[in-house]
Every structure is written in structure tokens, then in C-alpha cells.
Give the backbone structure.
Amino acid sequence: AQRVTQPEKLLSVFKGAPVELKCNYSYSGSPELFWYVQYSRQRLQLLLRHISRESIKGFTADLNKGETSFHLKKPFAQEEDSAMYYCALSGQPTSYDKVIFGPGTSLSVIP
Amino acid sequence: NAGVTQTPKFQVLKTGQSMTLQCAQDMNHEYMSWYRQDPGMGLRLIHYSVGAGITDQGEVPNGYNVSRSTTEDFPLRLLSAAPSQTSVYFCASSYSRDAPSADSPLHFGNGTRLTVT
């Protein structure tokens, strides 16, 4: 079954410290992985996608198929990074799911 | 270009009442979906549609109905509200008719916060 796990519900780091938000998935095919972010009082929006191998707002994420992980990293956290982060998986449709989201990690950057 | 628009932003219902959450997009997206967001559970798919006239159930469809008479609109109906339906509801769309992908990611509305007492 397709599944996305984010082991940390809450993550607090100090400004300037490195941050890593963990995401693991289970999927039998070739998945596409995403990170979505929801800032306070804003709508959910795409942060980055694995296929683009891009860096957005200083964040990067590498797909590790061996470890089935797609951790989100940033070397120096900023206060404006405080938000809810969701890891998501898309691929061959199952009986009902087109995109599966993890439970989310709330990141708090302490000034 | 407004993107995905949801109304209302907030709603309080009594148990047993019915209501419709509206969702409209002006991006000519084929794929539309409804999620509910609950603490610790992430976003769970309620219903989705891959085009006008086509809908299908998601992970948690019970208690909800949808229809897709036009490409732009995808309303979500609660026939008889229950306290368990207290949640934040998000509508999302993507260009691709198939599963949202890296080339066609989901675009979200601002959400509707529903409380059922």
C-alpha cells in the first residue's frame, strides 16, 4: 500500500541552525515526491518536487530510493520558514488515491 | 486569474444540517479534488474528479457527495452533518487529467473551516 510517514509532528530549531524534515514512503512503483508548505493564514502551496532537483527558498530534498526517503533540508533556518510542511507522493493510482499526503510536520524557527 | 476559490471560509452547522462547500477554479484544470485536514492525520482525500461528468471516491468519502457538471466547479455536499465532519476542507486542482505529477502539481484553495455542533 502507498503510504507517507513524517515521524515528527513538531520540530523546533534556532534561527541559523540546520533543519531536516524527515519523510519516508512506501510505494511499489516509481513515485513522484513533493513537499508542500502551508504558512500561517496562507493556502497550501508546492515547495518543491523531486524530479526538478531544485532548491527553493534554500530548501533541497533528495529522493533516496534505497531508503525510501525524501527528507527536506536547509542549512540555515530562517524565522520565515516557520510553517506546516507536508510530504506527498503521487504515482500510479490505487483504488482511490491520486496524491497521498503525510501527516505533516510543524516547523518552528526560534529567533 | 483567481486560481482556486473556496466559499465559505468558515461555517458552523448543527448535527443533521446539510450544506454545500463551493470550489471553483479558473485555470481550466481537468483534475479537482477535496481533502480534509485533521491534526495528526494530514490531508485525506474525500472525492476527486478527472473531468466534467466524472467523479470518484477517495479515502474518506462517507457522508459526502460531489458532482462535476462543469470543468470550473466541484462542489462538496454534506447531506447530514455530523460532529466527526468538523475539519478544515481544502479543494485542489491540477492541469493533468491523470494523477497530479511533477509537471502538474496540485493548486489549493484557502480552505473552509467547518464546525459541526
